[in-house]
Amino acid sequence: DWKEINARLSDAQLKVQAARCMDCGVPFCQSDTGCPIGNIIPKWNDLVFKNQWLDALNRLMMTNNFPEFTGRVCPAPCEGACVLGINELPVSIKSIECAIIDKGFEMGWIVPNPPSIRTGKKVAIIGSGPAGLSAADQLNKAGHTVTIYDRNDRFGGLLMYGIPNMKLDKKTVQRRIDLLAQEGIKFVANAHVGVNVDATKVRLENDALIVATGATWPRDLPIPNRNLDGIYFAMEYLQLNTQSLLDSNLQNGKYIDAKDKHGKKNSNHDFLQLVIVIGGGDTGCDCI
């Protein structure tokens, strides 16, 4: 199947991991070499150890708009900076973070909380990836009226179409999108600003505009035979694959596949479809 692959810790295991946190005098996990958004990690580790999950959730949400995303796909520099990692395994910070936010949704603690007062200011955001969504969430909390434009048919940017379902279930992404919409943020799909939506009009209708179009533009590799058929950029492949999966469970054929392409015969004279991936980082592994 194509469902999210995860290995969640039990409550007992989470308590053990939380207890391993030493509440360092200088907590490198939340320093410049640790969490880039400054999560107050030792505090919510202690609250999880004490079984004070709601307090842990409140402390986590003070610094992180979307822990359900970072708790699944963040590379966890906090764990790399954990002092325990000097001579043993670091605290499983990422697993604790994910457990806190998941319990928040399971217990019904996370509900729409629209601002009680509107400022009358309007902000347009181009792009609904993590940066655009975070900006929208913060601005909406401040009382501004926010509209997000995205060129795709679904919202979330790389969260929706760049990260495979096996890492981040798209139901998790859609759940947050729905929550933001219930809090008053407006979403406009299939809106490619500057192409089928007038950019000047968008700017004039709003008090401010944020461009959060992400880093989807690929770096080409000018090597011999680059222009041959069957060569694709990673994001092109990942988006078409995820879109087809969500639309039809890969039944509509609107994705890139090596099937029926020229291959190499094995000992049984069957054609093998051979695929080469250039690049061994997270994106290359996602394609594999």
Automatic annotation (TrEMBL):
Keyword Iron-sulfur found: yes
InterPro entries referenced in this protein's UniProt entry, alphabetically: 4Fe4S_Fe-S-bd (IPR017896), DPD_II (IPR028261), FAD/NAD-bd_sf (IPR036188), FAD/NAD-binding_dom (IPR023753), Glut_synth_ssu1 (IPR006005), Glutamate_Synthase (IPR051394), Helical_ferredxn (IPR009051)
Keyword list, A-Z: Amino-acid biosynthesis, Glutamate biosynthesis, Iron, Iron-sulfur, Metal-binding, Oxidoreductase
Signal sequence bounds: none
One Pfam family it belongs to: Pyr_redox_2
PANTHER family in the cross-refs: GLUTAMATE SYNTHASE [NADPH] SMALL CHAIN
NCBIfam families: GOGAT_sm_gam
Name listed for the protein in its UniProt record: 7190_t:CDS:1
Native organism: Racocetra fulgida
